[in-house]
Amino acid sequence: xxxxxxxxxxxxxxxxxxxxxxxxxxxxxxxxxxxxxxxxxxxxxxxxxxxxxxxxxxxxxxxxxxxxxxxxxxxxxxxxxxxxxxxxxxxxxxxxxxxxxxxxxxxxxxxxxxxxxxxxxxxxxxxxxxxxxxxxxxxxxxxxxxxxxxxxxxxxxxxxxxxxxxxxxx
Length: 170
Known about the structure:
By secondary structure, the protein is of the alpha/beta class. The protein has helices spanning 2-6, 31-34, 52-55, 87-95, 128-133, 144-160; strands spanning 13-18, 37-43, 101-102, 115-117. It has six helices and four strands. The protein has a four-stranded mixed β-sheet with strand order 1-2-4-3, sandwiched between helices. It holds the Pfam family Lipase_GDSL.
């Protein structure tokens, strides 16, 4: 049991915000399922991080920013701690949705119209301050509480800006 407490908790919390409008990205038998969803919000660590660790100053320039990460599927470093796709990539594909933007790569409501990925490679479930008080040092200063705070920021941003598709803007 003590060994489990040292293993970083890998959270795959995928929240799918459903909307009634159909999405143009749906294909085949997934069209009915995809028509119920328009956004995906993902939380976690390197198992779901699609680029935040490559942007976060504390981890920028790390391994996921260089080859061979991403070479096979994306043909360039993708910010993923993998050479290929992650489970979140398969989830959005099955829903017929485009990939949500890494939170640290977005700035406007338009950047998050398809959701957001808050996962950061090396993130912990517990706050770094709590871990430090127990003598545990972390190299990534991000925890689930940071990710949920970012999620609240995105929700406020989306609520404050009525999203109008680019094709409808004048």
